[in-house]
Amino acid sequence: MILLSFDIEEFDMPFEYGLSLSWEEQIRISSEGCRKILNCLSRHEVKATFFCTARFAENAPELIREIGESGHEIASHGYEHSAFEEAHLKRSKDFLETLTGQRVEGFRMPRMANVSDAALFEAGYRYNSSLNPTYLPGRYNHWHEPRTWFWQNGLLQLPASTTPNIRFPLFWLSFHHLPGALYRRLALRTYKHDGYLLTYFHPWEFMPIQQIKGLPYTVTHNAGNNAEVRLDKLIGFFRKRNVPFGTFREFIETLPVIS
């Protein structure tokens, strides 16, 4: 199964590079990027999982409701993207459930940072997808962690996919920087080896953020229309091979239950 996921957040990345962007622009960029993603998913008739911050959902409630009503899974990405308190775990979950009428079972920490399993369990989550089991300079080193799904502290852990052996990450950065055909081949190899593929992107990647002066090339390369084309080709590549797509919730139902 192919598990596409999208982290929907206020577009605060410019602040990491000493830039500024109005709140309205942060919401607009992510909202319009999300529309592009939804159109692509609808065109291919596939479902995905959307990890949303509550702050974004507060400012785009109709969009978040539409995502849920379209059959996609809504999960939590915290209350806000650049600030975290453990109380936000339940607060964001409750808000998203009230907004969408959909049970929120999953969580992903912004920037794939560490989060307490005990706190997640207490807040009522079923799974945690906050692990990228590779080495990313300046961010984290998770080479010692399991590469595929595993149970830990009463929670199902769903790491982002990396290739077998060398653990090359198949997340948004490699999606933009590798030649498209190479990325798809690595994704297919990983799918065949693991039995599933889990990757993640952001709505702002599908917007022309090259226009924001000061953002680094690593972030802006192949953003906008090129990202739309790449996503379309990635989905079509697996659809042509009759590989199923699904939400995280659907994937979990195929796994053995831990007693």
Automatic annotation (TrEMBL):
GO molecular-function terms, A-Z: hydrolase activity, acting on carbon-nitrogen (but not peptide) bonds
Pfam families: Polysacc_deac_1 (PF01522)
Signal peptide per UniProt: none
Positions of the NodB homology domain: 31-117
One GO BP: carbohydrate metabolic process
Protein name (record): DUF3473 domain-containing protein
